[in-house]
Every structure is written in C-alpha cells, then in structure tokens.
Write a structure and sequence with these properties.
Helices cover 61% and strands 0% of the residues. By secondary structure, it is mostly helical. The longest helix has 28 residues. This is DUF4044 domain-containing protein.
C-alpha cells in the first residue's frame, strides 16, 4: 500500500491530510453508531 509514499517524504500533501481527516471521521462515526445502536438495544433512548 505504501509504495508511493517514499516519493513524498518532504511534506504531506493536502490530499493526504484530507484523506486522514476523512478516515478519522469515518472511524468516529462508525464507533458512534455502534454505541448508539447498543444503547438503543438496551433501552436507554426509551
């Protein structure tokens, strides 16, 4: 996966920064939905 990473050692490109942010948002959203569905299953939200 990291075959092209060596070509950009000087600095992270804007695309890489945006990708990292989107990946973290996806992870947080996934965990959040899992927690929400678990709480809903045990009746926290009524």
């Amino acid at each position: 996966m990291k075959s092209g990473a060596n070509m950009q050692k000087k600095q992270k490109s804007t695309f890489q920064k945006i990708t990292m942010v989107l990946v973290w948002i996806m992870i947080i959203a996934t965990l959040g939905s899992l927690v929400a569905s678990a709480l809903q299953a045990i009746g926290v939200f009524g």
